[in-house]
Amino acid sequence: MNEAPTKQLSEVLAEKAKVHHAARPKPLAWIRTSPGGHFAVAALLTFISLVLLRTNRDLEALIVIGATWTVIPALLITDRLYFDGEALFRSGLTALASRALYGRRQELLVEDVERVEVAAMRTLRRGGTVRYRYRIEVSGKGRNFAFASGGRKFRRMANALLTRILEDKLDARACELRDHLGEPKQLSAAIEQMGIATDSILEQTDETARHRIEARAAHGLENNSDPERSHLLRRVANDLRVAGRLRESAEAFRRALHMSSDNAWLIYEYARLLRSQAAAFGDARLLSRACAALALARKRAGDDARLLTRVGESFFEFGQPGRAAATLHRAVELGAYGYRPHLGLAEIALSEGKLAHVIHHYVDAAHIAPDQATANLARREADYYTRLNNDEDYLTAELRRMNWLEGAGRIQQLTARVSFASLFVALTGSFFDQLVAGVGWALASSSIIGWSGALLVRKFLSRRGGLSEAT
After folding, report:
1. Among 102, 137, 303, 389, which lies 20 to 30 A Cα-Cα from 63?
2. How far apart are CA 371 and CA 176, in angstroms?
3. Are 147 and 121 in contact (CB under 8 A)?
4. What is the mean pLDDT of residues 249-254?
């Protein structure tokens, strides 16, 4: 009697499922997740198998080592991040296990992204070229997704993702990757078109001759200058800086500045280059020149609140909190771009220990946030620092948590170094003296246990309020 309605209901549900599946856009880009965590687990299990082998438990050691180097590679191969234009989500065996455990998919909608931060690490330096490894961290709604640079897939993912996120959520490096992360072949073609000397030629040319050549080139360019060429030089200079080709970037910036010396954005970007050179070559004079260039960019920015905001954030990054605060206050007064200036002022106030000012700026940021996600972030930060300011017990617990977290980090670094050294002693000492090998194995075991304990402690202490709730 109820067979017909039941059949119709099942058909409707099946049709809706098909429509939902068809409406899901195809991934625009994908990238493998960072393998650091998987390698750490593999190294720990491999060490356990060595200990089992040393204690004559051959079968258990074989099972552990076999399972480790069967399961871990499978997890590495399948663990990926996908972006379909609407959401960033994780796929693979690790994501499947997490979904079975927590009952939800690991994904983050673009509209729910609260902030994007980029960390840059120098991995190689040769002459004027620096090899940067970028790590992008996207956070929102209590979820964090991170991926690191490594070829064409990273460039495709960064371009697809960062161009769809509001600029208020991006830090300076994220904006630079969004605008100037390109293909190496295209960059080489642009360098050849602009007539920029290669790094090897610049390295062989002394400073006086180089300035003389650049002055002549600049004179010729000024006579035949046009806005389009100046724009192309500026873009190539920034592309080279992001690619780590700092000496060639400096030459392109000098040529562009000869043609457009009053361009405040160009001066700001040149200051960012000087900061990169100062960090790469350890030259304090370059950092002073970078601060001077930022001051000039602030002077010529006029009423450009967006540029003033980026200049203020760079001042703070360069270790000039006073100049940063003055510049960000100027951006707030203009009123056209107020969310990020308030966040920057809150960070400066926090570095100075002024909790009341931190709360004030986060509350103001929440009121003028561009969307709900950024408003939630600012409101949550305001609530956290309000509780710190009003509750002395909570403040004491949080200070204790931060101190313990820092101590756990130091212990983890120390035990990691000791474990590698002691494992080397244990493996090589067995050829000379078993007593030395035994001491090495004991130290390695102790350090591995200490490293694992410190890792667990850091996981627990990284959550705000976790210590106060536990006590």
Report:
1. 102
2. 23
3. no
4. 90
Q: Which residues contact 123 (CB under 8 A, 6 or more apart)?
A: 131, 132, 133
What is the rounded CA–CA span in Å between residue 424 and residue 314?
Answer: 44
Rounded to whole angstroms, the Cα distance separating 243 from 155 reads 11
The helix/strand/coil state of 430 is coil
Nearest to 191 by CA among 249, 134, 145, 126: 249
Select from 109, 119, 110 the least CA-distant residue to 162: 110
| pLDDT, tens digit (0-9, with 9 covering 90-100), for 77-102 | 888 899 998 999 998 888 888 788 77
Q: Which of 298, 283, 372 is nearest to 329 (CA)?
A: 298
Q: How far apart are CA 122 and CA 276, in angstroms?
A: 10
How many degrees, rounded to 5, is the angle at CA 254 between CA 253 and CA 255?
Answer: 90
Residue 313 in tokens: 């954030």
What per-residue confidence (pLDDT) applies to 117?
93
Q: Which of 250, 336, 333 is nearest to 290 (CA)?
A: 250
**Rounded CA separation 327/372 (Å):** 27
Rg (CA), the chain: 27
Listed residue (56, 92, 99, 48) closest to 73, CA to CA: 92
pTM for the model stands at 0.83
Q: Please report, in angstroms and rounded to a whole number, the separation of the first and last CA atoms in the chain.
A: 61
Question: What separation in angstroms does the CA of 74 have from each of 78, 154, 276?
Answer: 6, 21, 39
Which of 301, 387, 311, 383 has its CA nearest to residue 344?
311
Q: How far apart are CA 437 and CA 445, in angstroms?
A: 12
DSSP 147: E
Query: Would you say how long the chain is, in residues?
Result: 471
- The span from the CA of 43 to the CA of 69, in Å, is 10
